[in-house]
Amino acid sequence: MKNLAWIILLGLAPAGALADGPAAHGGVPLDTLTPSGMQRLSIEAPAAAGRPVGLTFGEAGTPEVRMEVFIGRDGAEARAVLEDWRRTLVRPPPEAELGDGGYGEGPLWGWVRDNVFVAVQRVAGEADAEAIAARVDEAVKAAPAGAATAAVIPERVLDDAQLGDDPLPLPLPSGLVAARVQVCGPGYARSTRDGWVLVRTDPGVVTVRVLGVDDRLRVTRGDG
After folding, report:
1. How many Cβ atoms sit within 10 Å of the Cβ of residue 219?
2. pTM, whole model, 2 decimals?
3. How far apart are the two ends of the chain, measured CA to CA in Å?
4. Quick one: fold of 21-146?
5. How far apart are CA 56 and CA 38, in angstroms?
6. Which sign does the torsion angle of CA 103, 104, 110, 111 carry?
7. Location of each CATH 3.40.1000 domain in the chain
8. Tens of pLDDT, residues 141-199
9. Which of 24, 147, 152, 205 could form a disulfide with 222 if both were Cys (CB 3.0 to 4.6 A apart)?
């Protein structure tokens, strides 16, 4: 019986190759987004291309600020994500003069700057979410033009002869800071001390697809 499993993978490495044509901002450097006095606690790849990357920041391991960042191919794509984000809120904040337009008040801010959507939310503590949003907007403004997406990661189709009986090492391309791995077929992916492996559960063909995020928060599209 076929199994479908999504596994979140996290790691840090240099940026990988690029794909697609130039956009106003070819991503936003990850290290420019950390609020002053905080550390980055986690990076979460989106469940699908076309959705934001999730970031969590805080002090002493305690989450205090949550961000969502989406790199669109153009401003229209980024604005569509902004409006989708607003529709998910029980009490959407009022319109705000931030970036090219958005919404914000108190602990919650969301806006678009050119082809980039960002949301900032204080989830604990006393951080000034508005000030953090303003600093992040400056980082987006400073981000150079370039490709809006990371390079496509080709899917792998593995048969019984390739899989064998032992767990199969599942190396990911360098340059990813986060990823989701989709395993379709009789198997699943799991983490080990030496990296990720693919474990089969029954005979049959297994397909592995990776949706990756690079260190400019660009997401793979296409086969990913």
Report:
1. 27
2. 0.84
3. 24
4. Protein Transport Mog1p; Chain A (3.40.1000)
5. 10
6. positive
7. 21-146
8. 999 999 998 888 889 999 988 888 888 888 888 888 998 888 999 999 887 777 778 99
9. 152
